[in-house]
Amino acid sequence: MNARERNTVVALVDAASVSLGTLLQVADLEAVTGAIEVGTAGRILLDAGMPTHASAADLEGLDAFYELFLDAPRQGELVLREGDAPEMTWGRRPVASLILEGTRRADEWRRNADRVIARGTVADDADPELLAAVDGVRAPWQLAAALGMARHAVASRIAGWLDAGVVSDTGTRAPMPATGPTASNRANVPVTAEPVRPLPAAEPAIAEPADDDATEASFYDHLDAGRRALRGGDLEGAHAAFSEAAALRPNDRVARQNLRRIESLMETAP
After folding, report:
1. Using one digit for the tens of pLDDT, what is the confidence trace for 165-197?
2. Pick from 34, 76, 30: nearest CA to 53
3. Residue among 133, 117, 138 at smallest CA distance from 193
4. Would you tell me how many other CB atoms lie within 10 Å of the CB of residue 185?
5. Contact at 8 Å (CB) between 65 and 106?
6. What percent of the chain has a predicted confidence (pLDDT) above 90?
7. Could you tell me if residue 31 is left (phi over 0), alpha (psi between -120 and 50 degrees) or otherwise beta?
8. Which of 120, 124, 152, 185 has a 20 to 30 Å separation from 161 between CA atoms?
9. Which residues fall within 8 angstroms of residue 184, CB to CB, at 6 or more apart?
């Protein structure tokens, strides 16, 4: 591509229409050195299109990178800007892998953040402080605020625990305040909200509604299976599951993005 002056705005997009993952793909394709500004939430530094560092409020590095995936849709504008080469801070990681992981954690947060959870029947010694805080009264957003933990980390751990039976869904919700929590205010959001209310019968949709409950349940089953396979390093299994999910909802943005990114990851895998 043609050389650009430093501090040049390469792309400015509406965060509600273009995802952070998509803008990271553009930066990778164009080999942009500079940064992506995620509204007022934080920024991701880039070296020839590769993310090398991120900051969001008091978070730095990968914690901040994944947290920005949770905040990006509400940030108004995302700006891709040419700038000076940053210092490498977390080594070279495949861009597609980073995007997939960020998208997964953001999706898990959207699906589970306000679900009140209780202890299950299976023991687990990972994150003992978080598990000890699970009380059948609070939802993940409240646990993250109370413990001062990064929301993406809580979302990822809770999703794994739900799959394994370490925690269970009580069937009620604790609605989040309209203002958050976000990376910048997560420690200041009150951990009590309006009283919990029963969950609706159907799973809340991420993109467009399913044709019926059975199709919706099957869609999320395949999506979850793909993420479990990806966490276990099974790219073929993840591709098969994401393909099934995309077949059930061919117009779903999350399904399409997961499939495209796993295919990109498979192309670059050794």
Report:
1. 999 999 999 998 876 666 554 544 444 444 333
2. 34
3. 138
4. 13
5. no
6. 42
7. left
8. 185
9. 40, 41, 56, 57
**Contact 94/261 with Cβ under 8 angstroms?**
no
100 band by pLDDT with thresholds 50, 70 and 90: confident
Q: Which amino acid is at 78?
A: L
Angle of CA points 22, 24, 27, to nearest 5° = 115
Angstrom distance (rounded) from CA 119 to CA 125: 13
Encoded tokens for 16: 């509600």
Scan for tokens 């997009």, then name that residue: 13
Structure tokens at 1: 């591509």
Read off the pLDDT of residues 21-78 as tens digits, 9 standing for 90 and up: 999 999 998 999 999 999 999 999 999 999 999 999 889 999 999 999 999 988 889 9
